[in-house]
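Bit of a strange request maybe. I'm writing a small parser for structure token strings and I need a real example to test against, not something I typed by hand. Could someone generate the tokens for this chain?
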Amino acid sequence: MELIIDDRKRDTKLPAILRAALELFTEKGIHATTTKDIARRAGVSEGALYRHFQGKQELAEDLYITHLSHFTAQLDKSVLPHPGFRDRLEALVDGCFRFFDEDRTLFTYLILSEHNELGRTTKRVRHIRHLVRDILVDGRQSGEVREGDLEVFGAVIIGTILRVAVFRIYGLLQGDLRGQSKEVAEACYRAVGK
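Reply from user aminoacidic:
Good idea to test on real output. This should exercise your parser:
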């Protein structure tokens, strides 16, 4: 997934600012990153940053909400057309791992920021947990998901996907994650399916 940038701003300093902020927020965290750090990494003045955002927090939230919304919308389009729970689960895992393989820094930012510093903003946008809940509800109605708490099942599915990504970040797994999609989807299915 590419950074989402308004076409009118593609030829400005904004793309460099967003990429620099993304890298620094992932490396150091939002609170430990300064606007001076972002400007230096982007090769721009701090004033250039302030032409686009009121400050670091607005930049962090915009980066998070814009890309989480886009990521979830892309997952919705690629997952929901599949007819069965097992196929949807495989499409979900494949979509997450494809995003990870395409832009590990952005994927990491979205995941780590939710837990560390921006979780409160998640309430304003559709999130992967909403999609997982939808496919679990449909799977329960079609008889493909066993009895049990769907919130727990959702946590198991999302947790499994994210832990595999974290293992790749830490070098405990090698290669593209998409090569692991079927195995991870099968593990998730065995945890919650009939």
